[in-house]
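Need tokens for this chain, all 485 residues.
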Amino acid sequence: MKSRTGKFRYIDLADQIQSRIEKGAYKLSEKLPSLRVLCQQTGYSMTTVFQAYIELEKRGIVESRQRSGYFIRPRLRKLRQTPGMAYHDMVARKITLDDLVHQLTEDMGNPEVLKLGAVAVSPDHLPCRQIYKHFKSIPQDRIPDMIAGYVHPQGDAQLRRQISNLLFTIMPEVSEEDIVITNGCTDALSLGLRAVARPGDTVIVESPADPWLRQTIKDYDMYALEVPADPETGIDLDRVEHILEQETVAACLVNPNCQNPLGFIMPDDHKKRLLSITEKKGVPILENDVSGDLYFESQRPVPIKRWDVNHRVLYCGSVSKILAPGLRIGWVVPGQFKEAVCRLKLNRSMISPTLSQAVLANYFKEGTFNRHLRRLRKLIKLQYGYCAAALNRYLPRTVRMTSPSGGLTIWIELPEGLKGSDVYYKVRQKGISILPGFLCARPGIYDRFIRIGYGGRWDKQMENAIKIIGDTIKEMENRPGGETC
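Here are the structure tokens for all 485 residues:
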């Protein structure tokens, strides 16, 4: 039946709801009126109201959540100007780390702190019950061997077989014999770095980069040659090529898919060019793909390892960002460096947790992992939309921020005169932890930046925390001379 406007009633109602949404009548994370409530408010039948919501779903305006109702769907568009690439001199330097790193480590374990600086997914989004089920399903007669025995240093064969199956769509040539199980992705990168470089060697690394990765380079007493990365396409390849013509470099360490903290996915032609550049000089690539499964588009981005015919790319991944960080299971596909990686692992940790390996192998074998990943990607993409919209709403207009293609972080450039460390200390007093950007490179490059993570469950507390951060930045910006303390 048609309304007075000549449209079908459900179309007319859908237009009215869309108009109210666009005028800000509903907050982004707010639940829309239920079918019953909307029937009472409009006088329309349940069928008409239901058809209106279906129409809004088709338009991409709302989405339904199982047993929860209808919510506004965030639109993944560029909301702010993107921070530019930070050009700086490129000289190999020893890494220095601020004492603030220790404070951030304490924040991670403090239940009273809202961890907006973390690169982590909420337990609410992980299949904890299913994993626990596999803990309970292990036969009791196998438990003593798992607790008291040792598996091969390369890792549980069944788990390596399952990981090989999972990697098949992006790296079909990788077999279980090519994989070495590690204690997470950081351990995989650490073993790979130690296998190809020695103390005093120079390593190319993206700028900005994950602070904990920089910690690894520092602990090995190596030099970091930091190359600027574009927030949309990745590391500056012209500069990498120039460096390799001038310098002796032991390794190139990159995070090409869903990079932390910028969130870019390096285009395939850039990946191939980077591989070609490093191959000419015999420089191995350490590829961090820990968040590669958290992409926002329709297709899983391909790793550099896919085109590695000479087996000089050490591909590193884990389940820490997508499934179960507490299991401490990662892997490296080390190519021609496999023997060195296995030897280093044997000397350092000998094996990875036997019980965790068995549980994870059984879970993968169950066949529900890909379904979990699809659900997780949808949730993370949704949460990014909520977080980005809140940042756009509450941060001053002088702030820039990235529009990531995936991952768990947004990189934010503060107004002139402000420091990310000062913002950290201000909001930390209110129980909120963020990551100051200066920790992601050598001092002086990213002092005006902060990193925000959106992997936690989005709720009113999260939105309020974003508002507090925005109000804090506005207050600091408005003080005479940009005074922050």
